[in-house]
Structure formats: C-alpha cells, structure tokens
Amino acid sequence: MKKLAVLLMLMAPLASAQDWMATSFEHTEVTPGIYMLTGADGKMSGGGIGLLVGDEYVVLIDDSFTPLGPALLEKIEELAGRPADFIINTHAHGDHTGSNQFQAENGAIIVAHDNLRSRMEGDPEQNTGPGALPIITFSDEMTFHVNGQEAYVFHVPTAHTDGDAAILFREANVIASGDLLFRGIFPFIDLDSGGNVSGYKAAMQKLIDMSDDETKFISGHGPVGSRAGVQQDLEMLIDAEARVKALIDKGMSEEDIVATNPLSIYHDEYNWGFITTERMTRTLIRSLTTD
Question: So what's the pLDDT on residue 17?
Fold first, then answer.
C-alpha cells in the first residue's frame, strides 16, 4: 500500500487528476454481504468505502471524491442492484464525503456525527447544495437494524478529527473504522480539525478492545485489516510519540528533532506520499507541545 496517492487537494498541483484518480471501483468481499470498495487499477478513490447489501437496505460508508460519484453509483448498483439507501459519513474530509450530494440526488439518506455536519456546513467547498450535508446526525451512538445485521455506529472524540464515527457490524464481526485506521502507514491526525494524538491512540485502543482475532477492519486507508494489524499500528504510534517526546524533554527545537529523524526505524514500512516520516514527526511535536 506504499503506492497510495496523496489526497486530492495535495495532488492537484502536482499532476492532472487522470494520472492518479480512479475512474472505476473494484471490490473485496470482506464477509458475505459486506464489501470494501477501492479504486481500480491501483488508482486513488479516496478513503476505503464500506458497502452493506441485502434485500432490505443498501448502506454505504463514505462516498469518495466528488468526481467519482457516478462511478461509485455504478459499482453500488452492480453489487446491490440499486443505489444506496443510507450513507454513513465517518468524518468531514472530502475524500470521504465528496459525492454526498450526488448520492443524495439518487435517493441516499446521509447520516453522521453532529460535529461533522457543523464542519461541512461552514465549508463552502463541502456545503455545495441540497443533499451535501447529513440530514440525520447523532451525538454519541446509534444503531441500524438492517439485512439481519445490527450496525452499531459510535462517535470517538478528538481522534482523527472531532467528528469521527466508526461502525461495528456485530453479527458479521466487521468494523468500518474510517480514518481511525491507516493500515500499515503513518496516520493523518488532523490537528486543525479537532484531532489529537492522545485521542487517536485511545480510538485505536477502543477498536482493539471491541474486536477479536477474527474481526475484519475496513480501513480508512490501506487494505482490509485484522486485530493484530491494528495492534501493530498502535504500538508504532505509541513508540513514535515516545521517541519524539524524549527529544522534546531534552529541550531540542522542532528543526533539531526533525534533523535527528527519530522515526527512521519506521520509515521503510510506514512512510508514504501524504504522511511522510518528517510530517509524522512534526505532527507528534505539535501535538505534544500544544495538548
């Protein structure tokens, strides 16, 4: 997964969209009736998308960049036979909410945490018209009872952002984590949108605590994950933070810490185009010195 493209807003100045953005979707069947959708041909389609299909309802978890709405709808109809009835947005970033309006125009009801709606409402790039915003919001948790599944949707505060939600499909033993999980790569912890490292670690631990060795994770970025994989990523983050904190405690400046490269041990495995080893280091410095 080291070839993951960077987010739309960062890639746009570097290359035309057709060079890196997917034009169609492929799917992995995580368990019968639950799929993870990703960009075909290894191209970027935004975050990992979950899809629950069945005779009663079609539930989509996140919905990619704005230009990919029609291609996503085509894939949903291929697997489910009809458009999504519900969309659960896991957080307010455009690679997860970008086709809200298009999917709503095709019948989807959008659900998300209160803070997600508030952030989107105040952002003209995301509040693009009727249907773009969630019309059902929740403060802590809610449950969908669909297709013989109990889908438990819960808020995790101040983690990736301040409006994160994850979804546990209890009977299927599948967790759709949104960007609470960047499987095998450095995570993006959006400090400017209410996230912080302490909350992110707590969120990952919560996912681990509610899972077992058979649980499958639809990750926000990266492949389908396991409990062991989430544990590995959490241990990396805990150790990375400790390495940076030790240098802060010595009185070193940010630039001196970056030059020391305290996360070099993780570079070969976890570095990627959007969250490089340097950017992860600076995120940890900022979080440790402002929390």
Answer: 52
